[in-house]
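Teaching soon. Invent one.


***
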Amino acid sequence: MSLVVELRRRNVFRVAAAYLVVGWLLTEVLTTILPTLGAPDWASRAVILTFAFGFIPAVVLSWFYEITPDGIKRDHEVDREHHETRRVGKLDQATIGTAVVLIILVGLFSARYTADETTDLNVPISDTSVAVLPFVNMSDDRDNEYFSDGLTETLLHMLAQVPDLKVAARTSSFAFKGQSLSIQEIARALEVAHVLEGSVQRAGDRVRITAQLIRASDGFHVWSQVYDRTLDDIFEIQDEIAGEVGHALSRSLLGTEGEAIFAGIATTDADAYDLYLQARKERATYSYGGLQAAEDLLKGALLIDPDFVDAKTELATSYIHQWETGLKDEQTAMAEIIAITDQVLADDPDEPVAQAASIFAKALSLAAQGDQAALTDLTNELEAIVARAPEKLEPRILLVRAYTYTQQLEKSLPVLNAGLALDPFNPSLHYELGRSYMMLERWDESRASFEKSLELEPAQPNAYTSLGMTSLQKGDGIGFVGNLLKAIAIDPKDHELPGLLAAFLYQLGLVEEADDFRERVLTLAPRSEVAYQIEMLRAISLGDDEGSIAAARRAVEDDIADRRFAFGGALQHLIRRSVREERIEDELAWIDQQSPEILDIDAPRVSQKYRAVQGVALAAWIHTLEPAEVQRRLDLLLDFVATLGFEPEDNPGFHVNILLIRGDTDKAIEVALESVFTESVATHLNWRETFGQPHYAVLTEDPRVKDALARWEDEESALRGSVQSYFADLRAST
């Protein structure tokens, strides 16, 4: 038997022909479809190679094997007398099907791979886009890091002014600092076509700067240059590098030769600029030590160059963060912000950061004096600034703050997400998003945002603190304590962090554990609001009624700020104790003696602090005033909170209290059971004092409420035990 006859008998020719026809058709289809799906170039090549290499296995299978009614058999096992009548369909289909499946699988894998790797298939990467990576500090002195980072920031700022050039945001570019990723990977993550990278080597008053512009698709160097200069020429170097890069991009990408007009850092003094760069690096930590250092450095820069605009706006920003962290009181911070921004706006009324900081400080100052309408005006003005300068971070964050003050929390989300679209690796924006989710009680999303922020920038005490708060909402006391300890380790100069932890521990009755953190507070800031607060809580925890009343009275006598409800908490404690002890008239007289404004609900203009704490006086007024007068005062307070966009239902505990004052016991019980007692006791550690008020008796007599309180008591006991064991383990390990 000849070879040709045997090949025909074994259907090798039929299988080969069928494979080639079907495989060719499928290959044509897939190589046409895959590029439209955004698959990489190799995907089509893989399909073709799979088809080619699959031909030989298909032929071999048809030579050696046959599919029969009795299953798959080797060819010599088949009855040859019936070979002429065998149908090839089954074997042909099986063989060809194998090839078809292989080709399809390659196609699907390619598409899946592409879907996994591409963030948005519908958004093409612009050829006129660039990311400026942090220039590498090649100097022996690592303290020169701020210099190389500052050069990078300046180049970013200047290149952003090139018309039609898309420049990745500073924070997102800096997110890749120190990472061992390829240019292609970084470019894909930042959605840019080009990357500018470089290095800085500084020695004395000499500096060598290397810069190179790379096309990400193939790693081709579009442009590169080395600069050897004295530091006196630093501004000239910045202009030169930015100009050459801008022109290189214009020539190769934009098709123009036009001169870009650059507005760089507004100083010509190298020493002032040096201090400014150091200050930016310090402020970026948002720690007490960093903010204090930044203020000193910026003031030093302004002594050298009083007209240094960027140093002034940076200083205003630093004051805002100092107020938010408790480093400066509100009145002092706002006055300083207004003074410094007025200087900037006198020369440039449209400078967005100064403009935003100025109207923010003025609005909060007016609100503190009782003008709540100023906050509504603030949101409108900040919205306009953000629309005009979307790339600026600070106006966007201040707008989110304004939404918080006016209870427009949902509006914060699109503002922050829009910022992240421009700057996806900005830890501050992820942190702010976490704060917004937390205030909306979207705890899982809040936690994810805080974790993302810390992934991008681990040295954030505020993010660890907020992450701890999300743990507390779930009753995880150890998670709260652990995150607070991390925050304290990062920022040992912040007195509020150990104060938060001490307050939590005192409320749990863990006096010994709390005292260590109390000592930190008293060492760092003995006259702070936190110090007053924890002294009162310590006395309460020890059962020292006289001591707790004395501590609360000191807070009222000294008229402390109401940061973290320090003033309001003191007033609340005094009123609740006096009601229980049936000496309320004397207590109200004493409070009035300290300042008649505190409880003057009918004053034409009441400070925000006093208006905010007048609500705690309801517990006294219901025992001293006629019901109609109590209702009138309650309505006035509700009108006040309504101006802030706040509704009683927004705070279940507040809502329950209002319902009880109005005599709607059934509704109060319903709200308490559905909204208050469904929360963790970890967020209601003062529950005994709250539910011990006389007008709460109609609530606590209900059997369902009694069961809920008993459950809270058990939860509190378990929480106390777990936290106590945690600290015992810490002491044992050290």
